[in-house]
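Quick one, probably user error.
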């Protein structure tokens, strides 16, 4: 890997020239866009690539400086001062192993801009035809198609396509540098991570046990004290985790005292609940299903033996009538 300072000094001319040529070429294309629709389309496509290039440069610069004034000074500089060179040096250090690719991308951008400038040389005849005090844009509007200019659309398209590829290369360099930096930060953070406290390592098992206990209390538990009006449960989270999970809880049942308005008496119970996973096989499920069906049948059979009071009185009246 090259020294950031020496690489910054090597890249500085290419970066400065690329920024200056983008501005100069955009100004020329705006002027010559009045000549034909072909040049107007070229100018529009070029502005897109110029914005792309400046956005990527700004995103890279923001990785090494938080000062907006430094970013703007770098992008609008006509000559790199000590501040711009220092920013570029920090940028090269940030890029790490992508420094050489970064320099090569700026060289490719410079070559593409040079090709576009070469194509615009055919418009120099408008400059020689200007009247005294007339701007180049006014000369293009006045002369228009009276001056024949050869526009090689293929050459423009090829230069713009190469410029587009270079911009995407610049974007790839920025993303790769960011990913490498993020991975490095994650590795450093991972090395400094401390082990969880002992009481937190079995959190998932304690959580499942607490959920199972809550479900059992809500759906299965029935209080034998009919005088209780409501119940409050406090479950302690400092559980003991071995083969099973053991948790202590307080159960509070409230009931009203007869003859006393607004006064309630609590019944407090302290107990322990144990939770353990139970393996459920197919045979066990079938047995439980069969047992539950038998229980239901027996309940149905018992209900059939029940006779209502009205039926009993009717049958008794009928018996008395027969005896009479």
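Nope, works fine. Designed sequence:
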């Amino acid at each position: 890997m090259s020294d950031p300072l020496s690489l910054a000094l090597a890249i500085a001319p290419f970066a400065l020239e690329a920024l200056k040529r983008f501005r100069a070429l955009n100004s020329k294309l705006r002027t010559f866009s009045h000549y034909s629709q072909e040049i107007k389309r070229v100018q529009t496509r070029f502005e897109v690539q110029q914005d792309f290039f400046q956005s990527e440069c700004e995103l890279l610069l923001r990785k090494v400086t938080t000062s907006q004034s430094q970013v703007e000074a770098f992008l609008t500089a006509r000559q790199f001062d000590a501040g711009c060179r220092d920013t570029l040096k920090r940028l090269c250090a940030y890029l790490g192993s992508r420094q050489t690719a970064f320099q090569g991308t700026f060289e490719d951008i410079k070559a593409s801009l040079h090709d576009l400038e070469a194509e615009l040389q055919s418009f120099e005849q408008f400059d020689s035809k200007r009247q005294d005090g007339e701007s180049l844009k006014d000369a293009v509007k006045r002369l228009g198609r009276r001056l024949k200019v050869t526009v090689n659309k293929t050459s423009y398209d090829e230069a713009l396509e190469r410029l587009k590829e270079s911009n995407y290369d610049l974007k790839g360099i920025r993303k790769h540098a960011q990913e490498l930096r993020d991975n490095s930060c994650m590795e450093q953070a991972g090395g400094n991570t401390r082990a969880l406290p002992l009481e937190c390592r079995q959190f998932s098992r304690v959580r499942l046990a607490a959920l199972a206990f809550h479900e059992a209390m809500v759906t299965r538990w029935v209080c034998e004290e009919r005088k209780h009006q409501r119940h409050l449960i406090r479950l302690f989270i400092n559980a003991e985790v071995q083969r099973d999970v053991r948790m202590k809880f307080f159960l509070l049942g409230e009931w009203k005292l007869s003859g006393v308005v607004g006064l309630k008496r609590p019944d407090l119970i302290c107990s322990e609940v144990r939770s353990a996973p139970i393996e459920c096989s197919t045979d066990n499920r079938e047995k439980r299903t069969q047992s539950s069906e038998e229980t239901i049948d027996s309940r149905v059979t018992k209900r059939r033996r029940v006779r209502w009071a009205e039926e009993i009185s009717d049958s008794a009246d009928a018996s008395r009538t027969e005896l009479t």
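The first helix runs from residue 4 to 32.
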